[in-house]
Each structure stands twice: as structure tokens, then as C-alpha cells.
Design a protein that fits this description.
The protein is an alpha/beta fold. The protein has ten helices and 18 strands.
């Protein structure tokens, strides 16, 4: 089974079209399960937004030629906050059982190593394995998973599945108030990280033997002139699997990330990538622009509003650490020349020397027609730096010009991923094009709601 992880922020996914080749007659892969990751980073723009996101992932699979028998399922998860992962484990155990090995595939920065580490601590993995298996390196830098890491998959017998379902049912009856102080503290930490939170538990805990304490009374005896001596710590012996434990085992393998072509992240330093990749809940930033105004997303993307009868709304969905700067057409080039590489536009960083080697921004003209003041007509995806959702009056024709660095992909995504994103905003900030930001509340999976606000 191939478990393909895609970043929902990156739709349309550039690697998906290559997957049908991996399911050809020459390759003994029995099926493909597509998992959309990082749903916790996106705010709910309307009721049922997760169902719509899942439909978008399924449509992207169909467009890539993945449909019918080889496609086992499409799931939405957050490898980081645990949302949807208990459901993924149940789906894997129900459909795949222990029929063969599972290979975890995905592009760089899709969250593959985070998912591997979370599954390692879940009911999908043999209970003794976390003590004997190396965890995957989680890094924003490509090529960090250099070795083929693996863990043994637990055999989901009827008894184990029953015990697991009982645990999940019991946990679903708990409220937040019934959690321990440590669990509540961790839950609040996750809520700050993402909009969707879930807990990944273990049904089958391994009983650890109590350590034998070597007691040496002489170690407690020392004179006033002496410092107490510390006995050298014994090297902790690493757990090893026995032959019987692994002879018939099925394994889940983590694989090196696939490097995406035409991606702006390939042009950035590790420090810059950390600013560009969102790691916590994205707070949308909405601006109302008139024709002749320009929006900069750091120095990595630019959208010019060239022609239109009325103002339009531009909602930025990108890392909260990336600055957005509004300018006019007449001074936009001068601002870019002066501030690219400097603090105002932030990324890239390194001043004039850095910008000499950085590719210039190249334009692409875009024509859109508005469908109403509450629903975006399209997303302008500025490679992997983020996107700008454009909302305009019904039947209003807009001429825009968008820029990304030379050699990177600019995509007009129709329909948009979050069509009602412009409604997640506060009051207009007087004297500016900006609205106050608004952060929707987080949703916790597998916990009973108490009904309090």
C-alpha cells in the first residue's frame, strides 16, 4: 500500500500526476491511500469546509488519473496536532489489516516525517517498537530523511480492534474539564498551533519492567573536604526486536521527500524557509484595493489591480510571519528595488548582495469576473509562498497582474480553496486598505463539548 501525503495548502499538488506510474502493472502496489495534511492551519470559512476540502483533494486525484480500485480512500488530517489520525489508523486497520508493507510517500515539507513519528506512537505500531525505532528527523530542509526508516505494523486482530474501539468510545465521553492538568496544558498548546486538534492515544501499552537500583552505601559517605562523587551512569541499552517478533512482520516505511520543481522554497535559505512555511494557524489578512493599487507578499509575490470599476477584496493566506505591504502602481517598482532584501519585505533577507543572485519577479496577466461580495472568485497562488483570494462584486470584470520569481509556478486556482475567506475579518482600519484580523476558535476532535463558550 502506498500512503501518499499531500499538503492541502499546495493544491493542485505537483506530484499527484506522477503517482499513476507507481501503480502500473510492473509495480506490486495494491492500492493508494491519499492523505491531505495540514488542515489545522486553515480557518473554517463556512460550515462544512472540511467536506469541501476533501472534495477538492478527491477532484485533484481524479484529474491526475487516480480513480476506481487503486484509490483506497482520501483522508484529511493534521500530523502535527493529531486531528483525524485516529480515523486514519482505523481506516488502515480496517482496509489493509496487515496484508503487506506500507510506504509513506510525499513531497518535501508535506509533513511526512511528522506523520511517521505520530503513527509510531499510535495503535498502528507494535507496542514495543517506539523504544527500538529511530524517529524521523522533522526539518524544513529537503533530504533530511536519508535512511529508509521503518516500524512494524501491529496485527489488528478482532480482540485488538474491539479493545481499541472501547478506548475511543470512552475518550469521546470525556469533556475538557475531565482531563488532567498536563493533558489540558498540552491541549491548549495545540489549540494555539492549529484550528483543528485531536489526540492520538495508545490502547496497547507495553508493561515496562521496574529498573533495578544498584545501591552503594559508600557513595553516600564523604568527608567535609570532599565533594560527593557521582557514579558514572550506565549506558542505557537500546531495545532490540527478537527474531520471532519480526520474522513475519509487516512494516511501515518512511521515504525521502520528493523535491518539487518550480517551487520558490528551492530558492530560499533554511532561515528564509522557516519564515515562509506556516507552522501555526494561519490568520487571514484582508485588504480592500482600488484599481491602481498593489499588494506585496514579502518580496516573493506581487498582485497589481490594473483595471476594474469598483474596489475588490484581496485576502492573503500565508505564514503569519510574512509581511504584506500595500502600495500604488506608480511607486511599486521603486519600493521593490529599495526594500527587497531589507526588513520591510523581510524575505529574501541579506540586502543587495542577496538580491543580485535572486531571480527577478516575472508578470502574468489574469482576468477574473466577480461572483459576489462574500464569495471569492479565485485564488492567485504565488508558488509555495501562499495565495491571495480575490473577492469582487457580481459580474465585475477585473484585470490583474501577478508576479512570482522567475522559474517558479504561479497558479490561478478556480474554484478557490476557501471561497468565503474574506468574511473572516474585523472592522476596517481607518485611513488604510486593511481590515482588522480575526482568529476563529479551535475545534477539538474526540472530546465531548461542554456547551460553554
Amino acid at each position: 500500500l502506498l500512503l501518499y501525503l499531500l499538503d492541502v495548502l499546495e493544491l493542485p499538488d505537483p506530484v499527484l500526476p506522477q503517482l499513476p506510474g507507481l501503480l502500473g502493472p510492473d509495480v506490486p502496489a495494491a492500492g493508494l491511500l491519499v492523505v491531505g495534511n495540514k488542515v489545522d492551519l486553515l480557518p473554517a470559512d463556512s460550515p462544512g469546509h472540511l467536506g469541501r476540502l476533501r472534495q477538492r483533494v478527491a477532484a485533484a486525484c481524479a484529474q491526475a488519473g487516480l480513480r476506481g480500485a487503486p484509490l483506497v480512500d482520501v483522508r484529511l488530517v493534521s500530523a502535527k496536532t493529531g486531528f483525524g489520525l485516529e480515523g486514519l489508523v482505523s481506516r488502515l486497520q480496517r482496509s489493509w489489516k496487515c496484508a503487506g508493507d506500507v510506504y509513506l510517500l510525499g513531497a518535501t515539507n508535506s509533513g511526512k516525517s511528522t506523520l511517521f513519528n505520530t503513527l509510531l506512537r499510535s495503535d498502528y505500531c507494535k507496542s514495543r517498537a517506539p523504544d527500538a525505532i529511530d524517529r524521523a528527523t522533522v526539518s524544513s530542509w529537503p533530504g533530511t530523511t536519508l535512511n529508509l526508516l521503518k516500524f512494524p505494523i501491529i496485527n489488528p486482530t478482532c480482540d485488538r480492534i474491539f479493545r481499541r474501539q472501547e478506548r475511543l468510545k470512552e475518550e469521546a465521553t470525556k469533556t475538557e474539564d475531565q482531563l488532567s492538568s498536563e493533558e489540558r496544558k498540552y491541549l491548549n498548546h495545540l489549540k494555539k498551533q492549529g484550528y483543528l486538534v485531536g489526540e492520538v492515544g495508545r490502547t496497547f501499552q507495553r508493561q515496562k519492567s521496574s529498573p533495578v537500583v544498584d545501591f552503594d552505601p559508600d557513595m553516600l559517605s564523604y568527608s567535609i573536604d570532599e565533594d560527593p562523587r557521582h557514579s558514572p551512569r550506565k549506558h542505557e541499552e537500546r531495545e532490540e526486536f527478537t527474531h520471532n517478533e519480526v520474522k513475519d512482520a509487516r512494516w511501515c516505511f518512511d521515504t525521502p521527500g520528493i523535491v518539487k520543481e518550480n517551487c520558490v522554497l528551492n530558492l530560499l535559505t533554511e532561515k528564509e524557509v522557516k519564515l515562509v512555511l506556516p507552522t501555526c494557524a494561519i490568520i487571514p489578512r484582508t485588504f480592500i484595493l482600488k484599481p491602481g493599487m498593489v499588494l506585496f507578499l514579502a518580496a516573493l509575490g506581487r498582485v497589481d489591480y490594473l483595471q476594474g470599476e469598483k474596489p475588490a477584496w484581496f485576502s492573503v493566506v500565508a505564514s503569519n510571519l510574512l509581511p504584506v505591504h500595500i502600495a500604488t502602481l506608480s511607486n511599486a517598482d521603486a519600493i521593490y528595488k529599495k526594500h527587497a532584501g531589507q526588513e520591510l519585505l523581510k524575505v529574501p533577507m541579506g540586502g543587495e548582495e542577496r538580491m543580485k543572485e535572486f531571480p527577478p519577479l516575472v508578470p502574468q496577466d489574469i482576468t477574473l469576473e466577480g461572483i459576489g461580495t462574500t464569495e471569492a472568485v479565485a485564488d492567485i497562488k504565488l508558488s509555495s509562498a501562499g495565495w491571495v483570494a480575490v473577492t469582487a462584486h457580481a459580474e465585475e470584470k477585473l484585470l490583474l497582474r501577478a508576479y512570482t520569481p522567475k522559474g517558479t509556478a504561479l497558479v490561478v486556482r478556480e474554484p478557490p480553496l476557501l471561497p468565503y475567506i474574506s468574511t473572516i475579518r474585523g472592522a476596517r482600519i481607518a485611513g488604510t486598505a486593511a481590515y482588522r484580523t480575526k482568529k476563529p476558535p479551535s475545534l477539538v476532535e474526540n472530546l465531548k463539548t461542554t456547551g460553554r463558550k
